[in-house]
Design goal:
Helices cover 59% and strands 0% of the residues. The chain is built from 12 helices and no strands. The longest helix has 28 residues. The radius of gyration is 23 Å and the shape is globular. It starts with a helix and ends in a 21-residue tail after the last helix.
Length: 337
């Protein structure tokens, strides 16, 4: 085969872009400037879980200085990914305080390692785009610029959350689902199932999707079977998709069941995350707000495209009902004690 020079050039360009992102942000994770995530936010919980996994091999968002209560579990794939990179840190130092305290010299490497993990996610995303757009260089460059803009605009290199990884997994799941429209290959079924299960463990909302797919694909399969028996229609390639969907959703549900069984045995709860019940409690605060306050929430949560809300947000955020760090907010929190 001929070597595709364009692909090599864009591959090298992608590496250089990612290295540039890492080194251009190096000033943000020195001893004076690194910033632990707010204790009452999701980012803090994901960071705490990653250290709990690394230190104690348990999934909990309790403070990692002590062995936590495994019943405080939630989606673990992203913290598990981050925890792999802790193996490059000093094994003799306990980095637990890094999730809370500022200006600790040893914590610089802790946040630098996490930044490397985030940049690798960026690299994976750009390489994925390159795989599909290497024959259309203009589209690839445009995609690269858009992704970099979003990455910087949302400060994703310092945002400890599963959204980036879940978006990447969702893309690959969707890609293999598309392949299954006509594919009868077992490896496509298994790969799609793997991505789908991982997606469920990173965003539990997709667990409901697996049930919906199972039900609707089952109805389609049953309808096709009746039509075939009545000689109304013949089996064709398009009907393979319903069969494949049924198998993927069934495999996914089966692979999730051991984790559910573990939760039932130890905590008498089959849910994949305790966060669902917590969120119902947390969001009760919105019942205490009047209509005007709730309508202001539409502006507060509207995407800050091109930074048009920057000035106004500086004025209103501190007193906003929707700001997590506002003392009047009813978000559950906990202290170091």
């Amino acid at each position: 085969k001929k070597i595709d020079k364009k692909k090599i050039i864009f591959f090298i360009l992608t590496i250089l872009v990612c290295l540039s992102v890492f080194f251009l942000n190096s000033k943000k994770y020195n001893q004076q400037t690194y910033l632990p995530p707010a204790i009452n936010g999701d980012s803090h919980q994901y960071l705490a879980i990653s250290l709990q996994i690394f230190k104690y091999k348990t999934i909990t968002h309790d403070h990692p200085k002590n062995f936590g209560t495994p019943s405080n579990y939630r989606e673990f794939v992203y913290p598990l990914y981050i925890s792999f990179f802790y193996n490059f840190l000093n094994p003799d130092y306990d980095y637990s305080e890094c999730v809370l305290e500022k200006q600790i010299k040893e914590c610089v490497n802790f946040y630098k390692v996490i930044s490397i993990a985030q940049v690798i996610l960026l690299f994976s995303t750009l390489i994925t785009c390159l795989m599909f757009l290497h024959k259309k260089p203009i589209y690839y460059i445009l995609s690269l610029l858009i992704i970099l803009y979003v990455f910087y605009h949302k400060e994703m290199i310092f945002y400890f959350g599963p959204e980036h990884l879940s978006a990447l997994l969702l893309f690959y799941t969707s890609y293999y689902l598309k392949k299954l429209v006509y594919s009868t290959k077992y490896q496509d079924l298994l790969i799609c199932s793997f991505f789908f299960v991982t997606l469920i463990f990173i965003k539990n909302i997709f667990h409901y999707l697996s049930f919906l797919i199972l039900i609707f694909s089952g109805i389609i399969i049953f309808t096709n079977y009746i039509k075939f028996k009545l000689s109304i229609s013949k089996i064709n390639k398009s009907k393979t998709f319903a069969n494949n969907l049924f198998v993927v959703s069934l495999i996914s549900l089966i692979l999730v069941m051991p984790y559910q069984l573990r939760n039932v045995i130890h905590f008498d709860d089959s849910s994949l995350s305790k966060r669902g019940k917590e969120m119902l409690t947390l969001r009760n605060e919105f019942l205490k707000a009047d209509y005007k306050t709730l309508t202001n929430g539409f502006y507060y949560y509207f995407p800050n495209i091109f930074g048009f809300k920057n000035d106004r947000m500086k004025k209103i955020q501190g007193q906003s009902f929707f700001y997590e760090q506002n003392q009047k907010s009813h978000y559950r929190t906990y202290t170091k004690e």
